[in-house]
TrEMBL record:
Metal-binding as UniProt keyword: yes
Compartment(s) of residence: Endoplasmic reticulum membrane
Name assigned to this protein: procollagen-proline 4-dioxygenase
GO MF annotations in UniProt: iron ion binding; L-ascorbic acid binding; procollagen-proline 4-dioxygenase activity
Signal sequence interval, chain numbering: 1-27
Lineage: Eukaryota, Viridiplantae, Streptophyta, Embryophyta, Tracheophyta
Origin: domain of life: Eukaryota
The protein's required cofactors: L-ascorbate
Amino acid sequence: MAASRSCTLRFMILFSIASFLYQSCYSFLSPPSSIINPSKVKQVSWKPRAFVYEGFLTDLECDHLISLAKSELKRSAVADNVSGKSKLSEVRTSSGMFISKAKDPIVAGIEDKISTWTFLPKENGEDIQVLRYEHGQKYDPHYDYFVDKVNIARGGHRTATVLMYLTNVTKGGETVFPEAEIRYMLIDDKWDKLPNTESSLHTTPAKDDLSDCAKKGIAVKPRRGDALLFFSLHPNAIPDPSSLHAGCPVTEGEKWSATKWIHVDSFDKNLAAGDNCMDSNESCERWAVLGECSKNPEYMIGSPELPGYCRRSCKLKAICSYMVIVVNLLCGGYKPLQRSVRRLCLYALSLILKLYE
């Protein structure tokens, strides 16, 4: 009887230990919740559209990203405006590395949270880049959208950026928007509204703990776990000049951050070489029929420097229009056809071209 009780007790103890270890490992390895709490999001600016999510990352997630990056850091580079190739520059003096989206469950969970918050597909995002800024290191004012053909060819422009702060910074290291219209600023660990006047744009809060760099516009102080979301393009996909931003020099302490750049199209698929005469949206044919090729040519067709996203449908629309003119002229004068006939023409041409793809 005593032996039986002793065995049962040992079993219960071992079972309790196993259960505890399982729960601990599960909580560590399982993806964090992708549920977003809107009450933690504050609009910082409308020009550009910028928002801060307080406590977006947990301490565990912050530490995990830093631990993955520490041994892999390399000097950060910038994209050449002409060739699109990466190059070293004194404009950007941090060090960093990229973490693949499926690196582990924790990273995958962060990817899920970013997609849920931004309402943008995960496939449109680049891998998370973890950055370390030591004393004096910074990133001068720049845009996140590209001006070269090489980088735009894959996924199009960067439309949004999520900047996650992994550590607190004693002094400096703010993210500043020199061309922004101020709405809120972090003062004494609270987001306070500032008057939206020209005179207030470069003024300093009553209790000033901002660096000189941060006083040049709206500034977001790095606070562990917080995330800054801002858009580099207007809703019509035109670059927004007010999205100019900089990473202020770290004057005391060290700054760790993680950046997620999100494109207008999938970044995971490589576009084929050539003139990129293809559609990047399933609604392109419908938009072309509704006249968007002429109403919104920047997005639909693009330019020699900036490829559009519905070039194939717009080319078909042009061919269809020419055929309508020719047919009507041959039949005794130009008579505009009904929209349904134009749609049928466009659809027929689409089927014909698909046969030759």
